[in-house]
From TrEMBL:
<dbReference type="InterPro" id="IPR011128">
    <property type="entry name" value="G3P_DH_NAD-dep_N"/>
</dbReference>
<feature type="domain" description="Glycerol-3-phosphate dehydrogenase NAD-dependent N-terminal">
    <location>
        <begin position="24"/>
        <end position="191"/>
    </location>
</feature>
<feature type="binding site">
    <location>
        <position position="319"/>
    </location>
    <ligand>
        <name>NAD(+)</name>
    </ligand>
</feature>
<dbReference type="GO" id="GO:0051287">
    <property type="term" value="F:NAD binding"/>
</dbReference>
<dbReference type="Pfam" id="PF01210">
    <property type="entry name" value="NAD_Gly3P_dh_N"/>
</dbReference>
<dbReference type="GO" id="GO:0141152">
    <property type="term" value="F:glycerol-3-phosphate dehydrogenase (NAD+) activity"/>
</dbReference>
<dbReference type="InterPro" id="IPR006109">
    <property type="entry name" value="G3P_DH_NAD-dep_C"/>
</dbReference>
<keyword id="KW-0560">Oxidoreductase</keyword>
<dbReference type="GO" id="GO:0005829">
    <property type="term" value="C:cytosol"/>
</dbReference>
<dbReference type="GO" id="GO:0005975">
    <property type="term" value="P:carbohydrate metabolic process"/>
</dbReference>
<feature type="binding site">
    <location>
        <position position="172"/>
    </location>
    <ligand>
        <name>NAD(+)</name>
    </ligand>
</feature>
<dbReference type="InterPro" id="IPR013328">
    <property type="entry name" value="6PGD_dom2"/>
</dbReference>
<protein>
    <recommendedName>
        <fullName>Glycerol-3-phosphate dehydrogenase [NAD(+)]</fullName>
        <ecNumber>1.1.1.8</ecNumber>
    </recommendedName>
</protein>
<dbReference type="Pfam" id="PF07479">
    <property type="entry name" value="NAD_Gly3P_dh_C"/>
</dbReference>
<keyword id="KW-0520">NAD</keyword>
<dbReference type="InterPro" id="IPR036291">
    <property type="entry name" value="NAD(P)-bd_dom_sf"/>
</dbReference>
<feature type="binding site">
    <location>
        <begin position="28"/>
        <end position="33"/>
    </location>
    <ligand>
        <name>NAD(+)</name>
    </ligand>
</feature>
Amino acid sequence: MATQADNSSPKKEAHKEGASRFRVTVVGSGNWGSVAVKLIASNTLHQSIFHDEVRMWVFEEVLPSGQKLTDTINRTNENVKYLPGIKLGKNVVADPDLENAVKEANMLVFVTPHQFMEGICKRLIGKIKPDAEAISLIKGMEVKKEGPCLISKLITDMLGINCCVLMGANIANEIALEKFSEATVGYRHSKEVAQRWARLVSTSYFLVSPVQDVEGVELCGTLKNVVAIAAGLVDGLDMGNNTKAAIMRIGLREMRALSKLLFSSVKDTTFFESCGVADLITTCLGGRNRRVAEAFARNGGKRSFDELEAELLQGQKLQGVSTAREVYEVLRHRGWQASFPLFTTVHEISIGKLPPSAIVEYSNSSAQ
């Protein structure tokens, strides 16, 4: 693919005299954020259109050793809490000051839990460069009175900058170990900007394809987490692969139908990209949403998702349950619950209104 060019060269490519280089800041430092930094840092060293240094905003934490997380990252070149054992790149600088981390950047990579993004954007209003471009790796949405607001639109509306999205079949720890993976960059207008983002993150083991469908790409990454909760419930109930495959098919159908109802511009072909069916498969087989939902079902729904999240994820955040609630709010507001029984059932199970077994009762009565 053209998007992976230039990453193997040990030296920076020639750069035009006087041309300014793009400075990159990654806003977020969890598991996926740390992997994104690793990908980006290896490319900024080898491509002269980018400034070598990559800043990473870190929400400061004190480790059990008593040391600050940012100090440890800068000393060891490793995020010992969220991505232990993986070197991020010597050109990565962890910064606990959000405004300082972004002030020089004209390429902003957002990768935090989606429920924190509105607050982060509020802090950044008027603090970023006017020519900055953004990309969101965040899977989730905000629900407001007027309807759903995708994170890319939240960033654009609040910060006044263009925002692409990157989604795909990307379990972070596998990419950290440099196992082959693909992803999709969704863009709205400029293919040139999308290709620059692809160039920033693509490597020989991480291939990125641009698609002109921001909403479709982002909704795939968001909605698949709800289906992953359903798949985990099926695993926890020991229902087997046939049932799980049926749930995944029904889930993909609801993902596509809801996306096209919300945004008429969404393309059918997007669901065949890495952000679509591939991401759905990998998340239903091995993601954190599937894992926690399995534990929820094995406990008969008697332990809450919040409790299991704290126990199993060591500080990482579960996206599927909050997304299921947000999707349900959209469905309820528009009277669409009956048209999306899987999405509705996942939410009702997650709040304790239905038992975990309702997920297969649904699949028996509502599959089409």
